[in-house]
TrEMBL record:
Keyword line: Cell membrane, Electron transport, Heme, Iron, Membrane, Metal-binding, Transmembrane, Transmembrane helix, Transport
Ranges where the Cytochrome b561 bacterial/Ni-hydrogenase domain occurs: 19-187
GO cellular component, one term: plasma membrane
Regions crossing the membrane: 25-43, 63-81, 102-123, 143-169
One Gene Ontology term from the biological process aspect of the record: respiratory electron transport chain
Chief location of this protein within or outside the cell: membrane
Name of the molecule in the record: Cytochrome b561 bacterial/Ni-hydrogenase domain-containing protein
Alphabetized GO MF terms: electron transfer activity; heme binding; metal ion binding
Lineage, uppermost ranks: Bacteria, Pseudomonadati, Pseudomonadota, Gammaproteobacteria, Chromatiales
Entry membrane topology: Multi-pass membrane protein
Subcellular location: Cell membrane
This protein's record includes keyword Iron: yes
Cofactor(s) of this protein: heme b
Pfam families with a match to the protein in the record: Ni_hydr_CYTB
Species: Acidihalobacter ferrooxydans
Amino acid sequence: MTSTLRHPKNDAAQATPRSLTSRSLHWLITLLVIFQGLLGYANLHVAWFHERLATGMLVHEEAGLILLGLTLWMLMLRWIEGRRPADGLSKRQAQLAGMMHAALYLLIFIQSALGIWMMGLLGRGLTLFFWHVGLPITADPRLVFGGVLQIHAAVAALLAFAIVVHALAAFHHHFVLRDNVLRHMLPWRTVTSRIASSR
Ligand code: HEM
Ligand code: HEM
């Protein structure tokens, strides 16, 4: 049905599929980033969560470390699989998409670094399930509440803004340009295998 509506140059966008692992990682990371933003905020500003701050912080920290690991994994896969951002798009669109993807990766890394720094400043070290490691950072909780936390909150807001722009761009591709950029990212979708078999 969509074949007659497709933009002529968008067939090229189907040329380089992402692996199932890469697509699944993308959506897992999406869920985790949203979870982190909500939990981080709730821990400090919602009474029910604030009363259970120690547990909430631990969950936020552990989910943050898992998120960092998954993001590194997705970046490594992109490098191994040799995917370019926005394959098949105009040069300008590809540049914009590349910049947006780089910004998303960078913001997640900055956010994780700030979080790890805060754990050190709070004198807590890092915990992931049964594994605990101290951090070579001199404890100084005042620094957390006197600045680092505000930077962490500001980066979270920037990340939220970038995600909204990124998602709107994806919907623009889907509903206006009618190409397969969004379909390509769906874990259950096999656009390319269908196309490959029709060639
Ligand atoms: C926390 C939220 C999100 C983050 C951090 C994120 C991050 C990324 C990154 C880094 C890439 C590039 C992958 C690579 O090639 O290495 C990407 C691609 C993509 N994302 Fe997201 N994403 C998020 C949410 C969303 C949402 C909500 C949508 C759609 C509604 C979406 C749709 C897409 C699409 C269609 C692509 C492929 C673009 C292309 O091939 O150029 N993403 N995302
Ligand atoms: C993309 C990942 C992350 C997001 C979106 C995020 C978001 C947030 C937000 C919105 C807050 C509340 C800030 C405020 O309202 O002042 C917060 C607090 C905090 N974050 Fe993160 N954060 C992330 C990752 C991490 C990581 C990896 C760590 C530690 C390893 C961490 C440690 C903390 C700590 C200690 C707090 C203060 C208390 C608490 O809510 O747990 N964050 N975070």
